[in-house]
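Record type: monomer structure entry
Structure origin: computed from sequence
Chain ID: A
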Amino acid sequence: MTSSTVRAAAVAGSFYPDHPEVLAAVVEDFLAEAADAPPHAPPKAMIVPHAGYVYSGPVLARAYARLRDSGAAAGIRRVVLLGPSHYVALAGLAVPRASAFATPLGRIPLDGAAIAALAALPGVSINDAAHRDEHALEVQLPFLQRLLGAFEIVPLVAGRAVPALVAGVLDALWGGPETLIVISSDLSHYHDQATARRLDAATAAAIEAGDLARIGPEQACGCAGIRGLLAAAPRHALAVERLGLATSADTVGPWHSVVGYGAWALGKSS
């Protein structure tokens, strides 16, 4: 179901630097600041934000630094990326036809066999338009490129998708330690700082409790992916650990209208 086409970077130069050397240095600086010395179990899945690096970079890096700190990065050869469709209305999930995604750091091949299998499932469609301008997955790629060796991606964007559908797709892609699942989502949008902190604290508690009913579009733009992952997690005995929680006002944004960001790692209980 793939072709030789390459999905070009859509937000390089706006959400993150478009110069390869500058981008690599920015990512490494975020990772260095977020490094955590104590040993940790390797994450199987992560929930991460997707705003511009100047806003969400510190929280984003808290999740990706865990890959390096736990030693998990060395064994990962495939990354399942699932985020919301911001620009195209969808029913279910969508995969692209492209054979690779590009960033200023190079091209990342897609797992064509997995995508072909997914495209045959009910609730999954092929939709290049939904991927063309979508930033939710793209902003994850430079961090993965700096941390991993050779790897493939399975990019999915979600529209109206019930947890059972998303969980079923994740189960089909679950694999072993060679597969990492990354759910891309920001939290509350455009409240004042105090309100955002209160709302995001409640959302964080719901995520950590696996309470799907309390996680909707008002709590997280990527709620479909979060809910699907949380529905699948008990079947794989995964525990949820909070890595960071902040807002755009904690970096460079105004305090009267902020976006919330959170990062979580899901792995085997120690």
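Annotation 1: The radius of gyration is 17 Å.
Annotation 2: The chain has a mean pLDDT of 95.
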